[in-house]
């Protein structure tokens, strides 16, 4: 599902529900992709790959002031 930004004003609850179930929702303005709505859980539970896999540990508040 891709839609214009104005579409989100009236459909936000439904969009949030879809994102909670793992769907990524692109947002475009005048036909140009400007953002993507993704689940926060998806980004906070990522597994590292590559040479540093298993080497780094971040606390839950690593980005707090």
Automatic annotation (TrEMBL):
InterPro entries hit by this protein: YefM-like_sf (IPR036165)
Family designation: Belongs to the phD/YefM antitoxin family.
Protein name in UniProt: Prevent-host-death family protein
Species in which this protein is naturally found: Micromonospora purpureochromogenes
């Amino acid at each position: 599902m891709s839609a214009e930004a104005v579409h989100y004003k009236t459909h936000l609850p439904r969009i949030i529900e879809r994102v909670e179930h793992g769907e990524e929702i692109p947002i475009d303005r005048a036909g140009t992709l400007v953002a993507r709505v993704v689940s926060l859980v998806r980004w906070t539970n990522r597994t590292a790959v590559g040479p540093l896999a298993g080497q780094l540990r971040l606390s839950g508040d690593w980005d707090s002031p």
